């Protein structure tokens, strides 16, 4: 295992590095701004290192552009309907940054925050204090995200504690293209999802509070299916593709389970996602406006697939959903693993 660091820019009076972990199988490049994954190199079927995540060339682009490329989402990933929730009979009003709703933590979510960092031989640990009242959320929240390379896997361990009851739902927002970050549209990617139900949503993509079967819909990936067979379906028109939350089989038991597999025939690279979390947001970058990325690549809608392990969107407002409520003094502990192979 080796680690490296190189300057990437300045923010808040500090020199911001890119931190690289590398083993005999893969390498990952991490950025303290957003506790983000900037690059992730894995071997293709010919043994060639391939960078399979979208990212930017400069710190300024991460600060200024939308899309959350590679970032850690919080304090609450995904949507909270009406930008409000109640705990113990008290209502909390949040920053509304997507119409009337809160998306990915508000106007300045964790993916836009500068995290503290500590780089070890095999791990990089990012820490952040989210103060009481930030974006409307209660409680001083201490957050930790630890990235570890373990053989052919990137392991993300999430921890959090608050001094008041609050909402916590942390997730990673890497945009994967297993043909390489500049590989273009992902229609050829073949996906399997271990989910028989999803959370139907209204026009604003906020769940209605019930579960529905995926059977008979374009959301049925119980058997491996090319994304291109589904992306043109009228059912997906509003989101320009997939932007749907699935209820993973196995629920929320604390044990990491297989949630999805995706692979690219062009490169042979396969990705298995394992997670302790109960939900998985499948997003095919339908809202990603055309932009320039790493090495001059042009990214556009449909150029990536995101597998966002999470609690269900708006879970705090739906008692039937797994709760993202974190009680004061208790510890939030979740894990997501990206494991790579070739076929």
**In percent, how much strand structure appears in the residues?**
35-45%
Q: What is the ordering of alpha helices and beta strands?
A: EEEEEHEEEEEEEEEEEEEEEEEEEEEEEE
Number of individual domains: 1
What is the C-level CATH assignment? Answer: Mainly Beta
Low-confidence residue ranges: none
Largest sheet features: 9 strands, antiparallel
> What fold name stands as the CATH topology?
Beta-galactosidase, Chain A, domain 5
Instruction: Give the overall pLDDT as a whole number.
Output: 97
Radius of gyration: 19 Å
Helix/strand/pairing category: mainly beta
What's the quaternary structure here?
Answer: single chain
- Terminus-to-terminus distance: 25 Å
Q: How many β-strand runs?
A: 29
Based on Cα principal axes, name the global outline.
globular
Helix share bin: under 10%
What's the number of helices?
1
Strand order of the largest sheet: 11-12-13-14-29-23-22-17-20
- Just name the CATH architecture: Distorted Sandwich
């Amino acid at each position: 295992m080796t680690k490296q660091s190189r300057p990437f820019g300045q923010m808040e009076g500090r020199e911001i590095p890119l931190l690289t972990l590398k083993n005999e199988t893969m390498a990952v490049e991490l950025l303290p701004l957003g506790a983000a994954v900037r690059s992730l190199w894995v071997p293709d079927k010919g043994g060639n290192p391939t960078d399979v995540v979208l990212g930017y060339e400069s710190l300024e682009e991460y600060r200024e552009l939308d899309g959350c490329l590679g970032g850690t989402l919080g304090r609450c990933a995904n949507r909270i309907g009406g930008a409000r929730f109640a705990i113990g009979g008290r209502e909390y009003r949040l920053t509304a940054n997507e119409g009337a709703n809160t998306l990915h933590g508000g106007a300045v979510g964790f993916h836009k925050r500068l995290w503290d960092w500590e780089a070890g031989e095999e791990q990089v640990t990012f820490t952040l204090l989210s103060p009481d009242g930030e974006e409307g959320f209660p409680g001083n929240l201490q957050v930790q995200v630890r990235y570890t390379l373990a053989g052919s896997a990137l392991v993300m361990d999430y921890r959090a504690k608050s001094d008041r009851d609050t909402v916590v739902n942390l997730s990673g927002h890497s945009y994967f293209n297993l043909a390489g970050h500049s590989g273009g549209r992902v229609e050829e990617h073949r996906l399997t999802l271990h989910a028989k139900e999803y959370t139907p949503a209204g026009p604003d993509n906020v769940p209605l509070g019930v579960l529905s079967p995926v059977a008979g819909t374009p959301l049925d990936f119980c058997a491996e299916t090319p994304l291109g067979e589904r992306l043109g379906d009228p059912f997906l028109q509003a989101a320009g593709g997939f932007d749907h939350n699935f209820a993973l089989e196995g629920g929320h038991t604390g044990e990491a389970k297989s949630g999805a597999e995706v692979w690219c025939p062009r490169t042979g690279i396969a990705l298995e996602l394992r997670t302790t979390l109960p939900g998985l947001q499948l997003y095919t970058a339908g809202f990603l406006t055309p932009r320039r990325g790493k090495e001059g690549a042009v990214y556009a809608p449909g150029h990536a697939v995101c597998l966002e392990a999470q609690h269900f969107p708006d879970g705090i407002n739906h008692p039937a959903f797994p709760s993202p409520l974190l009680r004061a003094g208790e510890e939030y502990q979740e894990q997501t693993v990206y494991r790579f192979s070739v076929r």
